[in-house]
Design brief:
It contains twelve helices and 20 strands. The model has no long low-confidence stretch (mean pLDDT 96). It has helices spanning 11-22, 62-71, 98-103, 109-123, 136-143, 146-161, 170-181, 199-212, 257-260, 266-273, 340-354, 411-424; strands spanning 3-7, 26-30, 42-45, 48-51, 77-82, 84-88, 91-95, 184-186, 189-195, 216-218, 223-229, 232-238, 241-244, 247-250, 277-287, 296-300, 308-311, 322-329, 363-376, 396-398. By secondary structure, the protein is of the alpha/beta class. The protein is globular.
Length: 439
């Protein structure tokens, strides 16, 4: 039995605690927030328990299904036919299946053929090694053509990554396309999943498992320092007290690592500091009427400041329509400091343009959530920037969502990596990401 402290009670931290306890270790979890779950945590939205940030499940998320089965909540998985669309030139066009592509009037036949073939072949890929040093722009322009990139991709990348729009890894985007593109009922019908009761069902099951196995979760207990002596971890200072430990797993965003683990070498700290992140301001609206019939609407409109909307109630049934409007941007962007009220007004104005039938009285409630480190910026060659999970300080493992690369943030990758790190506690096992390009 190894005395273990896990920093962070998001999906990865809670999963790591669950797996470490199953392996027979003693576990304390420290979390700065007043509730567990991280990005998967719920909040009370005008009487509705809802995720702070939208989540969905794809059929490729095998680790999620395995974890749910272990926790006894596999029967809470639900699947629903969903669709996506594009807003182009003031009109909604269905997207994501062969018929929609053929009917799309904004592309010539050759462009349709090229992008259809590129997306189809991407869903059949088993490796992304050849895309590791290629930008998304280069990849799309080479495969689908410049017309497709300019019409369907340029604005989306600009509004999510801003000055970094031309510096986004093709491997990261292609992996996202494969994950969603293979979650289908048929070639003509997308099918995505949700957990009955929302992500909180899984979070609550993890918390119950941890407590049942004797683990302890300390909320509102921010980690201040990971302590080491003689090159070995000895504990974590958190919330004004010291938690002794023989092993520590840190799951907090990499920008915090240098301050949290000052005993790391300067070279190691520089590696964590070099990983760039962007923030998000996520507006959620509760409405009296639906905006569109689609789950996901990409917006390519120079007069709108949003890259898209997620009509979550078109996936997980809710009493009233629920729409998420995410604004991704670097936190030094002037708009990130704008008031909640301005984001609510702007985003609802966009919804009214998409569906002119929406009146001011149709907005029942709104909520604004912010994260400073919501999305790692995965540039070409990003795999080489990711430090090893096991650090030079014996007993200390560090990973956050950038370690999922080329996969995007998600519960499935959280659980998979958590299991790897739990397996490494007190052993010589080297936890691995997958794939690890060129290694």
């Amino acid at each position: 039995m190894v005395k273990t402290v896990i920093v962070g009670a998001g999906a990865m931290g809670l999963s790591a605690a669950h797996y470490a306890l199953r392996a027979g270790h003693e576990v304390d979890v420290v979390e700065a927030d007043s509730r567990p779950g991280g990005m998967a945590a719920h909040f009370d939205f005008d009487g509705l328990s809802l995720e702070r940030f939208y989540h969905f499940v794809c059929k490729a998320d095998a680790t999620t299904f395995a974890l749910m089965k272990e926790l006894g909540v596999a029967d809470k998985m639900r699947w629903r036919a969903t669709s996506m669309a594009y807003w182009v030139d003031g009109r909604i066009y269905r997207w994501g299946d062969p018929i929609a592509l053929l009917r799309f009037p904004k592309l010539d036949p050759l462009s349709k053929f090229r992008t259809g073939l590129q997306m189809f072949l991407t869903t059949r890929r088993t490796s992304f090694d050849d895309l590791e040093n290629v930008s998304t722009r280069q990849w799309i322009e080479a495969g689908s053509g410049r017309r497709v990139f300019d019409l369907l991709w340029r604005r989306l990348l600009a509004l999510k990554f801003h000055q970094y729009a031309d510096d986004v890894s093709a491997a990261w985007v292609a992996t996202r396309i494969k994950r969603v593109g293979t979650s289908r009922r048929s070639m003509f019908q997308e099918e995505l999943g949700y957990i009955e009761g929302g992500s909180d069902t899984l979070v609550a099951a993890l918390v119950a498992s941890i407590e049942r196995q004797g683990g302890r979760i300390h909320l509102a207990t921010p980690a201040q320092r990971i302590a080491s002596e003689g090159g070995r971890v000895v504990g974590v200072q958190a919330g004004g007290r010291f938690f002794p430990a023989e092993a520590v797993i840190s799951t907090v965003p990499t920008p915090y690592v240098s301050r949290l683990a000052p005993d790391l070498s300067e070279t190691a700290k520089a590696a964590y500091d070099s990983i760039r992140n962007i923030g998000v301001v996520c507006v959620v609206h509760k409405l009296t009427r639906s905006v569109t019939p689609h789950f996901w609407l990409n917006i390519v409109d120079e007069t709108m400041g949003i890259p898209g909307i997620v009509e979550f109630s078109n996936l997980r049934p809710t009493p009233e329509p629920i729409v998420y409007v995410p604004y991704y941007m670097p936190t030094d962007h002037a708009k990130f400091a704008a008031s909640d009220e301005s984001f609510v007004a702007e985003s609802f104005g966009c919804l009214q343009r998409i569906n002119p039938a929406l009146a001011d009285a149709d907005r029942l409630a709104s909520h604004v959530g912010r994260l400073r480190h919501a999305q790692p910026l995965c540039e070409p060659g990003f795999a080489a920037k990711i430090p090893p999970i096991r650090t030079a300080i014996a007993g200390l493992q560090i990973a956050d969502t950038c370690f999922y690369y080329p996969e995007d943030r998600g519960v499935s990758e959280s659980a998979r990596l958590a299991k790897e790190m739990a397996r490494a506690i007190g052993t010589d096992y080297q936890p691995r990401r997958r794939p690890v390009f060129g290694r």
